[in-house]
Every structure is written in structure tokens, then in C-alpha cells.
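Marked as duplicate of an earlier ticket. Keeping the data here for the record.
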Amino acid sequence: MDDADLELRFAPDTEALAGMRRELGEWLARRDTPIDVVDELVLAAEELCANAIEAAVGGIVHLEARCDGSAVHLAVSNAGHAPDDLSRVEPIAERGNTMQERGRGLMIVRAVTDSLAIVNVDGHTVARAVRLLDP
């Protein structure tokens, strides 16, 4: 991981979300990311981390952020196993709102990023989101 990248590890506890939001927001601001993009990426990361906390099977939640100049890449992982088709879940409106008891976190992430993929790798679920930056 590049020295300029951000890496956070924390126990699967919602109390850690405030610190994650602050650190990610400051990291993005140091890269001259537009404030509206900072706000949207912090929201996306919070949703991904909240899901990781909820689904964690012990262990830690791990957030990595990388900016390559053309995009910001977020990766959130936890110990656990997500449903195999989670990356391909269509928006709630297209399903007749069948997820009433569930949140809308992934829908929010999809709305504020350009791509979202969720995979299972070596006993961990990894959610990767990418937000393209304007040139």
C-alpha cells in the first residue's frame, strides 16, 4: 500500500464509525477532493462499514482508500460471507420494495459511486467501490 493511501482497522462496533468518517474526510480533503465528493464518499464508506460491522463474524473491519488521480477507490472487508449475488441486487424500486425491513445502504453507495462489487475472498467479504474524479 502506498504511503499516501489510507488504511483503517477497527473492531466491528458502530462506535468506530465517527472516527472513520473523520479520518476519511480529512484524508480526502488533503488530496484536494471537491467537498461534495468528500461528503458522498464518506457517506458511501460509512454505509459499507456499517454493513461490514453488522455482518462481521468476529475479527476486524478493514477500510482501505486509495486515490490514483483519476478515481478514489474504497475497499471495506470483514470476516464473513456475503450472499454470492449481492453485487447484482437491483434497486429496491425495481423489486417492488421487497426489502422493507432492510436498509438502503448499498443503494446509497451505488448512487454516489461509479461502481460497486462485493466478493467473498478467503473467508472475508470485500466491498469495493470506485468514484471517478473529474479531470
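See parent ticket for discussion. The longest strand covers residues 71-79.
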